[in-house]
Amino acid sequence: MFGQGLLKKLKDKLVVTHKTLVEKAESLFRRHGKIDQELLDELEEALIEADVGVDTSVSLVEELREAAKKSERLGEEEDIDWLRRTLKQLLAERLQEGDTELRFAKEGLSVFLIVGVNGTGKTTAIGKLANRYVQQGKQVVLAAADTFRAAAMEQLEIWGERAKAAVIRGRPGTDPASIVYDAIQAGRARNADIVIIDTAGRLQTKANLMRELEKIGRVIKREMPEAPHETLLVLDATTGQNGLVQAKVFAEAVPLTGLILTKLDGTAKGGVSIAIKDQLKLPIKFIGVGEGLDDLEVFDKETFLEALFS
Ligand SMILES: Nc1nc2c(ncn2[C@@H]2O[C@H](COP(=O)(O)OP(=O)(O)OP(=O)(O)O)[C@@H](O)[C@H]2O)c(=O)[nH]1
Ligand SMILES: [Mg+2]
C-alpha cells in the first residue's frame, strides 16, 4: 500500500527513535553472549528510557522472556536475528492495525473536531489535513474556534491560504461555539465536504476548557446529531509519557475517537507510540513528521515498524 518513497522519508524522520530504541536494543543483543536475566533487565531499562513507559516495557520484556523459554533459547547462545524478529513482533502486537482512515459522513458534510494541549501542533496538523483532503478534490472549511488569541486565528488563516481551504473566524473573544455554528452553516451553504475545527488548549484552566469543549460538542450535536465524525486529540511525541497524562484529562472532557501524534521527527521519545494502544485504547490516525504542508502521514503499523527497524 505504501511506496518506497514513504518508507525512505519515514526512516529519515524516525532516525532518532530508531537509535534510542532499536539500535540500543541491538547493541545490547550483540554485547550479551546469551539471553539471560541481565540482558532482559538492561533491555527493560532501555525501553523505559526510550519512553515506552514502565508498564508496557515490563510486559514486553516478560513476553520476550516467555518466548525465549518456549523456544528453549533462555540461557543459550545469542541468536540476534531471533531476538530482533521477536522484539519487532512484540512491538507490532502493541500497535493497532493500519486501517486508520478517518470516518466520514455517509453523505454530505463531515465534521472533525481537533483538541489538545497548547503547542502540541493542532493548528499545524489541521493545515496539513486540509491540504491532504483538498488534494483529494474535497472542499474543506476550517473553523477558528481558538478565539482566545488573535494570533491563533491568523495562524489558521495562513494555513487555510496554503491549503486552499476557507477559514471561518470571528473577533478575538467571540464565543468559540458560535464560530463552530457559523462554520457548519458555511459548510452546508457551500456544499463543502469537511469542516475541521481548531480549538484552544489551555490546560491551566481545566474546568473552563472542559466547559468550552462540551459547549462546542453540544452545538455540533444540535446541528448534526451524527457529528463530530471524528474527535482527534493531538499529542506531542516530544512530551513522551507526560503526553499520555494530558490525553487522559482530555478524554474525560470529550469522547475521543483517535490521535494525531506530532513531532515524531527528530525526537528520542518516539517510543511513546508503543504505549498508546495499551494506555489510551485509542488508534493513532496520523503522525506529524515536520512543519511542512506534506509532513503528515497516515499511521500504518507495517510501514512505521519497517522504518524503525531498517
Ligand atoms: N518538527 C515538527 N514541528 C511541528 C510539528 N507539528 C507542529 N510543529 C510545530 O510546533 C509548534 C506548535 O504548533 P501549533 O500548530 O501552533 O500548535 P497548537 O497546538 O495549535 O498550539 P496552540 O494554538 O498554542 O494551542 C509550531 O512551531 C509548529 O511548527 C511536527 O510534526 N514536527
Ligand atoms: Mg493553535
Topology:
Elements: H1 4-13, H2 15-31, H3 37-49, H4 54-70, H5 80-93, E1 110-115, H6 122-135, E2 140-145, H7 150-163, E3 166-168, H8 176-189, E4 194-199, H9 206-223, E5 230-236, H10 240-253, E6 258-262, H11 272-280, E7 284-288, E8 296-298, H12 301-309
Parallel strand pairs: 1-4, 1-5, 2-3, 2-4, 5-6, 6-7
Antiparallel strand pairs: 7-8
Helix pairs in contact: 1-12, 2-3, 3-4, 4-5, 6-7, 8-9, 9-10, 10-11
The structure holds guanosine-5'-triphosphate and magnesium ion.
Guanosine-5'-triphosphate binds near residues 290 and 295.
What fraction strand?
Answer: 5-15%
Structural class: alpha/beta
Task: Characterize the overall form.
Answer: elongated
Overall pLDDT level: 91
Helix and strand sequence: HHHHHEHEHEHEHEHEHEEH
Q: Give the termini distance in whole angstroms.
A: 18 Å
Percent helix: 40-55%
Structure ligands: guanosine-5'-triphosphate, magnesium ion
Largest sheet: 8 strands, mixed
Residue ranges: pLDDT <50 for 5 or more in a row?
none
Strand order within the widest sheet? 3-2-4-1-5-6-7-8
Number of strands: 8
Number of helices: 12
Radius of gyration: 21 Å
